[in-house]
Every structure is written in structure tokens, then in C-alpha cells.
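It would be a great kindness if you could assist me with a short task in structural biology. The matter concerns a single protein, recorded as an amino acid sequence and a row of C-alpha cells. Kindly check, if you would, that the fold set down in the C-alpha cells agrees with what the sequence suggests. Thank you for your consideration; the sequence and its C-alpha cells are set out here:
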Amino acid sequence: MLIVIPDDNPPVINGTVALERLHRLGEVRLYTSDAADPAVLAERLREADVAVNIRARSCFTDEVLAKCPKLRLISIWGTGTDNFDLKAAAARGVAVTNTPGANAIAVAEHTIALLLAVTKRIVPADNTTRQGEWSRNLVVQLRRKRLGLIGTGLIGREVAAMAKGLGMEVVAWTFHPNQSLAASVGLRYIELEELLSSSDVISLHLRATKETQHFLSRERLALMKPTAFLVNTARGALVDEAALTECLRDGKIAGAAMDVFETEPLPRTHPFAALPNTVITPHSAGMTPEVIETGLAMVVENIENFLKGIPTHLCTPPKG
């Protein structure tokens, strides 16, 4: 069996225990350069039985899959599947697995860190203090403020628990409300329009799909209070960035903190980089040693279980 890792760039799996485990399952080919070019990705996977996807820049389209006739499983390091044509994979008999929950705590912690940084104006305060200024501006007190979660999956519910620890009221909207979850976490589901218009902080936790492309559109952003803040640690495609830029420039919302963007890496000339009311980080919310170790172990376990005929964490079932 040939296992191909086409896109370990920057390196994540190279030199790890997980890679040693893969070598015990079959022949392994590891590529440490980018595979964002579909032709490069297809060529690297042409003879593969199993692929391990590290980077979301590698797009597994139907055209790529058509050139990989032996491929039966793609094991993703991560939870996102927006770089996959899952219907095409299922039709071609290719199973796709991911690693849900591996990064939930780390991303939730980063979400809260961004929430605190943007509402407390930590970055500008640090910058001006280093320059010899002593700007003691008023900032937001979070206790009794309303946090509106859009999405209550594994990450969203961790954020809810942490926000409750700060004394925030937590409300939520999601495509599939879970009332038992709401009771256990201590949140309340409300209509989306009410959440957008009443929340002091809005935090995004949806998957990137065709349905959620620009979920926060110009019209929905316009519902937010001028004193409200937006936090996005999910996917950049969820937000209309042009509309958000206008809102931030014109003071229609107070600020935004983001770890994800429509174009990554974020271009140096992007308006977000010049706005004083933003906090931006380089899609690094899930980058902890614990997340990497746990996620890579799940990648290998998903392959092992698939080979045993008991697949785990399937995003789409194999054909038949």
C-alpha cells in the first residue's frame, strides 16, 4: 500500500511518531513542498492508495481525483473540508476522514484571547506604551455583556463555557439547535437577526460551505450595534471582507479580531492590516503541540480503522 503525504509544508508530520506509524502500514512518500497547483497534487497522488492531507491549500477537486484511480482514502489533518469535492469523492469510491475536536480547546482559547485583545484594545495600548505614551483609554468590561455565537459545534461550545467563566451572557444561533447542549452549557438559542442586533460580541463557528459563503453579508453586518465587536476563528469565507472593511472604517461596528481570511496568507496591502480597530493573527488558533500530536494520532488511527473495515470520522462514505 502506498501512502502519500503531498503537502507537508510548512512541516507538521515530518519527523513525528505519527510518520513512524504510517511507515508500519505501508510505503510512504512525503513531499515537503506546496501542492496548491492541481497538476502537482494530481501527479503526487497518481499512484497513491491513501493520501494524508495537511494543508487546506491543496484542493481535491473532481478533476484531481479523476487522475488518482487507486486512491481509496484521504485522511485529513484538521476538521475543514472546504478544499474537497466530497460528492465527487463519494462517487469515485474515495472515503474522506478528518480529526474533529482535536483543536477545539486551542481554537476556543484563541477565540477568547482575540475577544479580550480587541475589546480591551491590548494591541494599541502595547504599541503606544512602548513609544513612551501613557494613553489610558476606556475599554469594554465584559461581565454581563452578551456574546452571540454563530455555530455551536465542538469549538463553539468550548467558547461558550469559557465566556460564561468571564460572566458573559451567551446566546447562539445554528442551523441545527441542540436544546440539551444549550441546557448543559448555559446558553440560549435565539433568532439570527436578534443575535446580530443585540450582541456585544459576535463569534463565528460555522463550516465553510456554499451555504455559508459570505454568511455575514453586508446586510447582516448592518444589523450589528456600533459598539459591537466581531471575532472570526472559523473560516475567512464566512465574512464579506469588503463590507466588513467599510463597517470598521466608518465606525459602524467597534472592531474585529480575526485569525482567518478569504486570502491566506493575508496580503501585506490588505485593508485589515492598516485599520486601528482590528486584531489579526495568521490562522494560528490551533497551533499548539497538543493539537498537533492529537490530530496526527487521529490521522493515523483513521487510516488504521479504515483498513480494518471500521472507518472512523468519515466526512463522506465510500461508494457502495
Observations:
- The chain has a mean pLDDT of 96.
- Residues 104-280 form a domain with the Rossmann fold fold (CATH 3.40.50.720).
- The two ends are 21 Å apart (CA to CA).
